[in-house]
Amino acid sequence: MEAIYIDAIATRLEVKPWQVENCAVMFEDGNTVPFISRYRKEKTGGLDDVQVAEIRHWTEVYTEMARRKETILETIEGQGKLTPDLRRAIERCVVASELEDLYLPFRPKRRTRATVAREAGLEPLADAFDAIRVSDPAAEARKYVGDKVASVEDALAGARDILAERLSETASVRETLRDIFRTRRIATKATKAAESDPDAQKYRSYFSFSEPLQKMAPHRLLAVLRAQNEGFLSVRIDADAEKCGNKLYYDFCQARRYPSPALGEQIRLAVDDAYSRLLAPSITNDVLKEFKEKADVASIRVFGENLRQLLLAPPVGQKRTLAVDPGFRNGCKLAVLDAQGRLLHHEIIYPHPPQSQKVKSIVAVSGILERYGIEAIAIGNGTASRETEEFIRRIQLPEGCRVFTVSEDGASIYSASEAAREEFPDEDVTVRGAVSIGRRLMDPLSELVKIDPKSLGVGQYQYDVDQGLLREKLDDTVESCVNAVGVNLNTASPWLLRYVAGIGPSLAGSIVGYRSSNGDFTSRKELLKVPRLGAKAFQQCAGFLRIAGAANPLDNSAVHPEAYGIVDRMAADLGVGTAELVGNAALCAKIDPQRYVDAQFGLPTLRDILKELVKPGRDPRSEAQEFSFSEDVHAIEDLVTGMELPGIVTNLTAFGAFVDIGIHENGLIHVSQMRKGDARVSDPSEVLKLHQQVRVRVLSVDLDRKRIGLKLL
């Protein structure tokens, strides 16, 4: 990668150029983000996976820019207009908008007023005006009146059209206006369509709205632009047209002989036309796009962090589980899962109105609890969730059996998915949904990777942001979480395996196929027998795969096979076997990592190895905790201002956190109602995490709009 791009990435991400360069080289060599961030810390300077993923993103952006430059240079050279200065300017460019500005005068375009004027032979007249070579523009224009130009005024108008287009395509002019527009306010006004369409009411806060662009919160900008796209708002940037025109006129004429009054008038008309007709709309779009891109990044960051917290939610682990998909009229769907998540039994009970078969339902559940030795109960948080939880808790539960409420977001998507049909071809969607709820409790990460992250209910304006960038972020987040936790090679589904570094969907299928034909893997080296899994893929994935009970205990750790020799040396130096060293904190404490530094393994990697030897294969996730809502609140009508309640954070946004308090509507803790110590916070993620259990105070209840204001206690 060229030095200008490496320096640009380093500056943007606030890292060292050598870190960017090393990452770029490793990407070119086929290395993945998890592998680089975990096992190549010496080359990255200890960058984490988020930073490495950012570097990868920008290397791809600049690789595409380099290809774009080649196309632009070929196009301009083909027109015979590529000067050495222009070539240098293009080659040194690292900002996409500036590159397109340089290309704009040469880019093939549709037929314009200036095109018509050129075809009429008026370009020399425009050149004379541009060079300020004439004092009487009308007299000069009279020379061009003929078959193609009907009058002096037509000649003058044509020359002005050419000047206006030139001005609008001048890179320095466009950047000057962008600088001005960036500092101005965005102003919105309701359209006629908004006055009669009830769907527009959700945007009524913006029907007459103005705010400096640079201070506008990402969620507000995205809301405004969505309303504009739906035809409910007109949006503009309130730059002063007269001042902008004066600035352009001055820049046009500066350092040159001042035009005569008559020529000055023609130039001023061309400048004003360029601004109002060509520049203002274009620059408005450019600047709104620029700020939207920033809003996209901020919103996608929130989405990614929420997804990370959701995927890394505490699991209850391998426990015999009763999953309940609650409902009223259609009953509660029950699914019994063994400790490995396999479906053992399913049925439907009707404990709630209108059927109200409480006794029959109690008998059915009690029988399941006893027959299958249930250790955990997972209840979906949808319709009838509170009523079902209360019903379950009235039943005598086995000792140690705990009851959990589980998010249903995306369960219906999974139920109808290819993954669900492949897992349960003979079961209907209701059974699949219940199974998903139970498995989410046992291991959220393993189950949620089967569902499109956009269906999990943790985003902010997710359908308004750049979908390509969103997909990249979500894929990176899922991959990061899967590899941070590690994957059991002998139990993982193909949907989980595909997110392991270096594997992907095709190899995941091959691994599962090999496992089905040959039985469980007994060592990591056996992976090399999987069809199409070569040395490079093995290098990338091996450290993230676990084999419980393997002959070599390192195969069930995050120590990479390439470092097994180092561990063997450490054990030999202590006079013990490798198996005795693994998991022995006292022995590990005697090891000086400095003794084992060599050309391949530096201190960062050796410290990671020692940390892993102390607790091999440690799951970074915490333990799942039970939770109960207030018994006094079942509907929004039960809420009273000042009431204090338990709740669970269901979504984090830039402006606050949504909290489930046990009723159909979630409440909102606005960011202004949060504190970190005695100080206010600007970002909810500073004090809250997804699915965190909290206590809140009710500040307001709007029954008409079904809105609840909360304060974090």
List the helices and strands and how they pair.
Layout: H1 3-13, H2 17-28, H3 33-39, H4 41-44, H5 49-78, H6 84-92, H7 96-103, H8 113-119, H9 123-130, H10 137-142, H11 152-168, H12 171-182, E1 185-190, H13 192-196, E2 208-212, H14 218-229, E3 233-237, H15 241-253, H16 261-311, E4 321-325, E5 332-337, E6 343-349, H17 358-372, E7 376-380, H18 385-393, E8 402-406, H19 411-415, H20 418-423, H21 429-442, H22 444-448, H23 467-485, E9 487-488, H24 494-497, H25 504-518, H26 535-541, E10 545-546, H27 564-574, H28 578-581, H29 585-588, H30 603-614, E11 644-652, E12 656-660, E13 667-670, E14 675-676, E15 679-680, E16 693-702, E17 707-712
Helix pairs in contact: 1-2, 1-5, 2-5, 3-5, 8-11, 9-11, 11-16, 12-16, 14-16, 15-16, 16-23
What oligomeric state do these chains adopt?
A: single chain
Q: What general form does the structure show? A: globular
Number of strands: 17
N/C terminus separation: 51 Å
What structural class is derived from the secondary structure elements? alpha+beta
With strands numbered from the N-terminus, the spatial order across the biggest sheet is 6-5-4-7-8
**Average pLDDT, to the nearest integer?**
94
Secondary-structure arrangement, i.e. CATH architecture of the domain at 483-614: Orthogonal Bundle
Regions with pLDDT < 50 over 5+ consecutive residues?
none
The CATH top-level class label of the domain at 483-614: Mainly Alpha
Helix content: 40-55%
**Tally of separate helices:** 30
Largest sheet: 5 strands, mixed
